[in-house]
Amino acid sequence: MSGVLPDPASPLSEEILDRQRTVRLVQKALAALPESQRTAVLLSKFEEMPYGQIAQTMALSIPAVKSLLFRGRQALRTALAGDALPADGRTRSATATF
At what angle do helices 62-81 and 51-58 cross, to 10 degrees? Predict the structure, then answer.
């Protein structure tokens, strides 16, 4: 069954590994957020809820939601910035946008 698995040295394999690493880093950074910030970020980014719906879901005001999102996104950017270069020193373009 030669040729079934991709060559581990191929650019595609490296992209897949970089993508998996990025996903793990984002998951780790999200897990490190305080619960209220994590919830607000997840509802906004992944559930695509508007501020008003997040406020209602979390029983908060819209300004409080905006504050949680600002602080949560800022913390994620800081956490992910420390992991901007992979071990081999290559620059990476697959950085999550928050």
Answer: 100
